[in-house]
Amino acid sequence: MTAIRDWKIFKDNLMTQNPVFVQVLGICSTLAVTNVLKNTLVMCLGLIFVTTLSNLSLSLLRAWIPSRIRMMVEVLIIASLVIIVDICLKAYYPDISRQLGPYVGLIITNCIIMGRAEAVALTSPPRTALIDGISSGIGYSYVLLLIACCRELLGTGGIWGVRLLGQSWINWSIMVMAPGGFFVLAVFIWIVKGWIMRPVTGKAGA
Amino acid sequence: MHKVLLSLVPILLGSVYLFGLRTLALLAVVCITGCLVEYGAMRLINGSKAKVSEAALVSCFLFTLTLPPATPYWVAVLGIAFGLFFGKGVFGGFGKNIFNPALVGRCFVYISFPSYLTVRWTEPFSSFPGGLIRYDGGVDAIASATPMILAKSDAWSGGYLPLLFGNIAGSLGETSAILILLAAIYLIATKTASWKIITATAGSFLTLNAILYFSGVIAPDPLFSLMSGGFLFAVVFMATDPVSAPVLDQAKIAYGILIGLVAVIIRQYSLFTEGIMFAILIANAFGPLLERQIRQWTQRKKVAA
Predict the structure, then answer these.
(1) Nearest CB to B113: which of A170, A177, A183?
(2) Structural domain spans, chain A
(3) What interface predicted TM-score (ipTM) does this complex get?
């Protein structure tokens, strides 16, 4: 029984409740780090790590957290996790850390993490919270990775630094700049909501 | 919309004369792409009742005339497709767009492919049959700078006459001030374009330019600034676009003033040589706000009286 419920949570967070294209959360990092696939992947791994562990630990601690200061406790836990990610990056991948700049630190303010903590972690048992955290992170990540693929391919003619489109390809500079992020994200949301999710929302309406 | 197309014909002929028959080929490619994209977008919105409005054709003409003569065809195709789809289609088609579709398209290619839109200019033909019998200027004519680029480094020595007649390097339709002024007179006389927008824009542009020039901040004098670059073309044809410009009189004037000021500021204080394109897009974004605010003020006045 619980396995079925867990699976449903997992699936919902990937599609019908996706944090990026349904709840439209965490858009700042979606626009900022998706110009190069490598950076996006690092960012996504960091985010999955933080959401998962923050959800788990908040859920374990939920009986002892007074509700008046719960926000402070949440931020404290999330911030410690983000600092761990940041320090690891600085130690092992200094180049990527430099390119990502402030965005790793800004995972703290990512709306998805706070949202999951408030909505799920404080009210659910650790198991549910853990699954919810992982699936939210993955739901966020795959969207970002797809967007990053589009942007890097059009903006630099290759993916992961490998040139795919041949020498005659002219880079679309706009794709590696912020406006490119807006356009690709908008088109992505449009395609998903207009074509893929239409049957789902249609059924809910009827 | 007929009248706008009609007023563009002399400018089009002028640019064929100056830059060769490639202009017409470019125009044809842009128009075909534009109509296909517009039809596709309208299919998504209206289903089988899709129609291509004449405004799409106007956008195609205007877009083509803002491109440098040597623009590759694929750049033009991408630009007009982007402009009509994202500048117009996604807002719901004709009459619902806040931004001028031709400028959205140009802005997209301008930022995406700066190597084609900012540095590869073509010298115009100078002898009589000119471009009327030739395809384009060839490789020799590539890589000269426009008067505006030259003026930035104080190297322009041609005076005003070439700016007036248009035998200078520049985008297809923007070079000849006299043809644009003729079109402007025709459009104002037939009440197609709003003279309020044109005069407010040109007035604020000249005023700020004059202030900066006479206080010694900038080098090009106001008359040169007015006639060089794409300012005249953009003001007459883009700023007055009846869909993306405001409707109320006071809003039109405020909108024009905003365009003029932003154009000067971008020209003088940014990396871009020409600012009128961004100025109009920025003013487009503020258009509805200006209009709402002015409507509120007038209503409040009526209530007080």
Answers:
(1) A170
(2) 2-201
(3) 0.75
